[in-house]
Each structure stands twice: as C-alpha cells, then as structure tokens.
User: What shape does this take?
Amino acid sequence: MTTVVLTFALAGLLTYFLRVTMVLAGERPGLTDLVSTRATLIPPAVLAAIVAGALLVQAGRPVPPALIELLAVAAAVAAVRRTGNVGAAILVGLPVYWIGVAVGLG
Amino acid sequence: MAATLPTEPNRTDRLSRADQSARTDRNVAAAPPEAGPGPIQLGVRDMVPFALSLIPFALAIGSAAAADGLPLGVTLFGAGVLLAGASQLAAIELIGAGAGLGIVLATVSLVNARLLLYGEGLNRWFPDLARWQRLVLATGIVDANYLNCERRFTTIRDEAERRRYYLAGTACLVGTYVGFQAIGHAAGATVPDGLGLHLAAPLCFAGMLAQTLTSRVHLATAGTSAVVLVGTTAVLGGVALPLAAVAALTVGALTMRSTERMEHR
Assistant: This one.
C-alpha cells in the first residue's frame, strides 16, 4: 500500500508542476503561444486512447466492442455535442445503457 | 402629408438635453449600488452545475478504488493530491492492473497535460498578486473553475472579489468531488453491475473527447491514438497508452504544421 501512496504523491507533484508551469513561464510571451497551440492536441490524443482502451481492450487483448456500450457512448457524445456539458454524457449515456440491459442487448 | 426634414436642434433643445443628461448622471451617481449576489455566492452558484455533473464520476472513482482494494484513506489522499478526476481514475485502473510506477506517472502526466494551459489564466486574472500566492491558487485549478473564471472575470474586475469567486467555486467543486468519492467507496461493494458504473468513466472521457474534436487536425490526432492503442496493446501492455498518445501528438503536430503552411500560401 506504501507504493500506491507514493505513486499518488508523485503523480500529485507532477500534476502540480503542470499547473504552475505557465504561472512561472507566464512572462515569456512566445512560449505561452507555442505551448497553447500545440497543447490543444493533447486532450484528444490522450482521451481517445483511454476511451479506445475502455471499449476495445479486455485483459490486455483487443476485442470487438459491445453493442450496448457503443450505443451508450454514441448517445453520450451526441448529448455533449448538443449541450456543451460533459455531465450530460453520464446523464444520457447511463440511461441508454440501462435501457439496453433491460431489452436484452447486454 | 408633408415630409419633415431633420433640422438642427435649437438652443433650448440642446440645453434641455444637456440638463437632462446631467440630471441622469447625478441620479446614477446617487443611486445605491445594485444589490446582486456577492462573489462568493456567484462562485458557488456558477459551480453548482459542474459539481452536480461530477457526482456520478466521483461515485465511479470511489467505486473503482474500492473494487481495486484501495482503502478509503488512500483513495481520498489520491483525490486530494491530484484534484483531477480523469487522471485519478486512470491511475487507479493502472494500479489495479499492476502497472509500474513509470507507466502510471507517464499516463497521469499526459492526461493532465491540459492543465498546462490553465496556469496562464492565473497570471491574467491576478496580475497584482505575489507569484507565491498565484502558485498557491494554482493548486486547485481545473477545467470547471478555469472556464467559469474566464467567463465571469470579464465583468468582475476587482482582484479581491475575483479571489473570493475563485476560492468559493473551487471549494464547492472539491467538496463535492471528495465527498462523493467517499460515498462511492463506501457503496463500492454493493453497487450492482447492471447499474453500469464501470461505464461512467469511459462516458465522461468520451464526452470530454467530443468537446476537443474541433478540427480535422484534432480528429486525426484522436483517430491515430485509438488505432495505435488497439494495435499495440497486446504486445506493449501498459506502455501502449502513453505510446499511442505520443504517436498521435506527433501526427497531430505534423498535420497542424502542414495545414498552417497551406493556409500561408
């Protein structure tokens, strides 16, 4: 358990470093512009890998996606695109999943 | 009907208008300040929708931590030091899967890399604060309070009020986040599978992903990442995620550069 605590502590330090980097580098205008432009690519790069890993990988092996989960995710994405609120992903996606379970899709 | 042409206003009209204007100015000056919500109330009020949308996510994190056998204290320690749900959940899942320290840290850094952008906001919002105070405020900056502050601080100009707004909203968010993780942890063992809480995190991530796909470059970046992850995961295991992200960033940066060149021609 000590290793887990240490992992969280180091991850917290790293995250804090990310938060303060621009506070410290804020007075260098060229740097902030460059970082701001390129950094917009980071969220899609990371989030796509996480979502693909959650839907298409099981026990370290690629698997075909479960239809019910695909439907829930598609509904969640549509809801977020429409409302602009990430919370809508769960508010719409989970009920779609429950309906899928109820009608025997999952 | 004869058409009337606009004419130069006579002196009486001009004086009368000037007088009215002066009276209006005096009335405005004498009027008591508008009694709207203060910065603390406003900070909490603006944060409530975000905090509510965070509840299922926090429950899912607490539940996942309990399922991986992490004690409540360790789970809340992770919540407190990271203050970033996506990376905390990714870390919990990787720890549960037996990934090494390096993999967990690399993944957390990549997931939280967007926080790099938010520190810049603190410099703009609080230019008169000492740097160490901005470093302290940076501890709690996340997507929600960054977005709220960007919107509200076009009208809230006073730095002390801005600070109260920022701290109140952040406290509301952190309280909800940590509190509901504790509840999710306590309920972890009793949550039935059919409830689909295992899907809460991918749904949130997919929702966040949907918001980031603002151009073909971003779409290409996301597509590359997903393809590389699925294609390499059987061979590389836990390393596949950071590798996929780096490969996607490379493709995205190259695509962005070639797009910029084409636009300049």
